[in-house]
Amino acid sequence: MPRNHQNIIRRIGWFHDNKLYIADDWETISAEAPIPPPDDDMAIIRSEENGRRRLLIRSPFIMSIFKMVATKFPGAAFDDAGIILEDPFASLYFYLDDMRKLAKDSDAPSASQDDLAALVHHYDSNIRPSHEKIAKRLKDGVVGFHDLWALFRPGDILLSKEDFGQTQLYRICTSTFRRGGEDLLGDDNNDDKMWQGTWMGSFMGSNKPTRFCFDAWCIRWNSPTRTFTRAQKTFRINMFHGLRAVTTLQQYPLKYTSQAEIIHHDMVERGRLWKQLISGIPVPKMYRGPAMELEKGFTGITRSEPSNVRMNAMF
After folding, report:
1. Of 100, 181, 148, whose CA–CA distance to 251 is shortest?
2. What's the predicted TM-score (pTM) here?
3. What are the boundaries of each domain within the chain?
4. Do residues 253 and 157 touch, judged by C-beta distance below 8 A?
5. Are 228 and 221 in contact (CB under 8 A)?
6. Closest CA to 185 of 154, 222, 210
7. Which one of 30, 110, 140, 298 is least enclosed by Cβ atoms within 10 Å?
């Protein structure tokens, strides 16, 4: 049954100059209204601050299906008023289609379905066009620095080349753009140098992001405990101009490579050999191949460049 358009439109609010309006798109006010009481029917309220677009989701129904579908919340914040989404609305890019499927299969009342229809209407009119441009580029296998947030979807498998050119797979967690000049070579695990979200506008003047960072985890061997443990790592991609082929990045989602089956086979074989090596009693063996030296100093552990060696080692 077609939804009532006016019922949907009245669920979209626009907060501007300390007044709340009812609007059917980002630019045009279709009707003005005084600030409604807290129990009004507005499901979402859009606003703009310092050129930064925001959406406040107030609908309990939308908030519930969002939390059911989303594994991570890129560019989203939670407070007593609801869920705040910020430009470029990464959470909607990743999860809106799944939210719609879940809502369609639910037995939610018509009013709740109208809430989601209002969000979809606003998304289709004002956000989807830019998201579709980014999606097309990624489908063509290229990406711009400003669009890296869309490449690293939370939960996807990440392909990375580690020491000695060995392949390592990670699970993508969260990502963010970071800014700064003097801290460019600093510690990317310092939260004081990071702001959450993926907004690319000006921040504190003209100081714009200089790198894109993302966290991912993998399974590694822990020598002291002789067990496999989960380890997290932060990666960075420094700012670049124009477009780059996704596969030229040092790390990128596994789904973009045509060698997935070969990589899987090689990693299974590598694991088999590793299990065979560590399952027995440690004994000295001759090793010939790439290696690096680790040295613990005042500033932490430093590593030498990989080089080929031939030596006796304990395995």
Report:
1. 148
2. 0.77
3. 5-126, 145-280, 283-315
4. yes
5. yes
6. 210
7. 298
Residues in the chain: 315
Contact (CB, 8 A) for 74 and 94: yes
Residue with tokens 């000006």: 202
CA distance linking residue 268 with residue 146, whole number of Å: 36
Tokens read off for 221:
């061997």
pLDDT tens figures, 105-147 = 888 888 889 999 999 999 999 999 999 999 999 999 999 999 9
Report the alpha-carbon distance of residue 218 to residue 43 in Å, rounded: 39
Number of C-beta neighbours around residue 82 at 10 A: 19
Which residues are CB-contacts of 187 (< 8 A; sequence separation ≥ 6)?
Answer: 193
Contact 280, 286 (CB under 8 A): no
Query: Of 180, 258, 245, 244, which Cα lies nearest the Cα of 213?
Result: 180
Cβ-proximal residues to 31 (8 Å cutoff; 6+ apart), any chain: 21, 22
* Alpha-carbon span 51 to 59, nearest angstrom: 25
Residue pair 250/216 in contact (Cβ under 8 Å)? The answer is: no
Residue type, 217: W
- Tell me the three state secondary structure of residue 305: coil
7 CB-side CA count, 13 A: 11
Q: Which residue has the tokens 């890296």?
A: 148
Task: Provide the angle, in degrees to the nearest 10, between the axes of the packed helices 110-126 and 128-139.
Answer: 70
Q: Under 8 Å CB-to-CB from 81, ≥6 apart: which residues?
A: 56, 58
Closest CA to 214 of 192, 186, 189: 189
Give the CA dihedral 189, 194, 195, 196, nearest 10 degrees: -30
